[in-house]
Design brief:
This protein is of the alpha+beta class and about 400 residues long. The protein is built from 13 helices and 15 strands. Helix 7 (about 245-260) links the parallel strand 9 and strand 10 (about 260-270). The longest helix is centred in the last third of the chain and has 20 residues, at about 370-390.
Amino acid sequence: MEARVLRQIFRGAEPVPGNRLRLLHGGAEFFPALIAAIDVGRAEIHLETYIFNPDASAAAVRDALVRAAQRGVAVRLLIDGIGARELPAAWLDSMRAAGVSVLAYRPLVSGWRVTPHSLRRLHRKLAVVDARIAFIGGMNLIDDFEPIRFAAPRFDFSVEVQGPLLAAIHQSACHLWRLVALTQLQAGETRLPRIKPSWPTDGRVRAAFVVRDNFAHRRDIERVYLAALALARREIIIANAYFLPGRRFRKLLRNAAARGVQVHLLVQGHTDHPFFLAASRALYRDLLAAGVAIHEYQASELHAKVAVVDGRWATVGSSNIDPFSLLLAREANVVVDDAGFAGDLRQRLHQAIEQSTTLDPAGWQRRPWPRRVLSWVAYESVRLMVGLAGGGRWV
């Protein structure tokens, strides 16, 4: 991409130069890197996760947090009130006994049922250690083979960040912790020590930190996606676990294919939410007819939320391309301007496409009408849920 085009894509999310980024593929790369960073933490650790599952991989992170707190590090764990509701009380007690501060984002009150307004979740997966190193991506604290077991591990990514981008990431983590503590009347948790971010001086990657919240950054992640699609010239690869984009997003995909851009969507072939997959499939017919290639991943569960455009622009984060992520949840993505990083991610996505079933446009047009009706009922139901949750109109 030309510099002018990149400036347009990053408008509103200016990239910061001088970073070191490392793409982490799956739990085999993510968990050892995260635990190693926690084990050398000296002053402060922020960890945010949607799911904290009681399994061996998550237990190793729990033990690392406990070790850090016991040696005097200020450890702050922010979990989602629904996503981490299966976290055992014994685990929470052991962490708190060691000195780990734990807050739950929008916890469900005992006896209350899930309502549309409870769909506003903390979906970020983020860790910051000593304002020196950070991890951002789609990976929860859950083993790659849980709860659905396949021969291959869950397909997901995170990115390790060192460099000037730490200033924005650390500020965001502190801000959210204070906000949650304040809303839960935990005044003692709002007073955080001042820590000056530090980083190596030899980083060469330009990257931006982009969040979605319900205040000043409601559409930021969606905007950077839309700009990248509008300006793509050669290739778009999107791997997304829950793919249910709005009308403008779909139009830009069709327009890109019409002008000769190779557009590849890598989506779930196996799902833990069949109703949502049915809703997503309501959109496939028009996209396939426009020349968009859709690949359903078959090797394992696909949980990634990543994209590469023209082998230069890339994003890794927690945000799905659906109304729950783009209109309701708190999300965090890293957006990267670097051919080396984007090339690494692109290669891994093409390898995954080879392990996928590529949908036949003609065959998809001939799907039995009951399946088509079910998909549209599911799609309209999702739109209704988003409206009831206060996310606005999703088209």
